[in-house]
Amino acid sequence: MSTIQPDIHFFHKLADLAEKETMSRFRTNDRVNIETKTHDLFLFDPVTEADKEAEKVMRALIHQTFADHQVTGEEFGTTGNSDWEWVLDPVDGTRPFICGLPVWGTLIGLYHKGIAQMGMMAQPVTKERFWSDGKTAWYQGPQYNRVLQTSSVSDVSAAILHTTSPEPISKYPEIRFDRLNEAVKMTRYGGECYAMAMLAAGHIDICLEYALKPYDIAAFIPIIETAGGIVTTLSGDRPEQGGIIVASANASLHQQVLSILNSQKTLVHP
């Protein structure tokens, strides 16, 4: 059983491999090979050849380099059984991917005994990468590199809120999005995984997502936490297994957000 933690250079190698598969298929207008998966919240949950091929090449390198590590991916499930678990989403934001919008990304997370240790989000269109080595969160872009730091906004009235789609809001009326929307300075939609990266970078203060899988959030947990932010479930628990996820710029803001979202629940979601 491997006891050596991979370094961040290995994450970059995985992202490089995935980029070759995703960028060769981005904005090609190929809609013939798009499949649809079942999803609780969305009628159309697409998967493309880019998703599958990018995951295949990342899995191959992981198996070659860390043969005893467990790998969990969106497209091909879980293989192996280990304290070290790679959690992969080859194209997080497949809907914007097929629309030609560069707010998707390749997500690479690493768990040890179920707790997120390191993570990377790579956006090959904009040539940006966001990552955490477990100690510090970093940004690398075409113009500069820098350490990531979440915003200092600590009052919800001054905060910028993001959620990817308004579709789930009416399906979860017991989650008081309406109250949070009224309380914040501004609400925006449609940023997909790029919005989580912008929270780590200090441009967005709150992200709320209603139905994340582990591979949707794994990469961002260490990025946001080492940048100074907080990521939990709606009930305040660890987020590694997904669910209804709330990310905030700091602990003070996070407590306000959870309090508002959980206030006066009058309905019970089945």
UniProtKB/TrEMBL annotation:
Essential cofactor(s): Mg(2+)
Annotated EC: 3.1.3.15
Gene3D superfamilies reported in the protein's UniProt record: 3.40.190.80, Fructose-1,6-Bisphosphatase, subunit A, domain 1
InterPro entries attached to this UniProt entry: His_9_proposed (IPR011809), Inositol_monophosphatase-like (IPR000760)
CDD domains listed in its UniProt record: Bacterial_IMPase_like_1 (cd01641)
Keyword S-adenosyl-L-methionine set for record: no
Keyword line: Hydrolase
One Pfam entry name: Inositol_P
GO MF annotation, one: histidinol-phosphatase activity
NCBIfam families per the UniProt record, alphabetical: his_9_HisN
Membership in a protein family: Belongs to the inositol monophosphatase superfamily.
Protein name: Histidinol-phosphatase
Gene: hisN
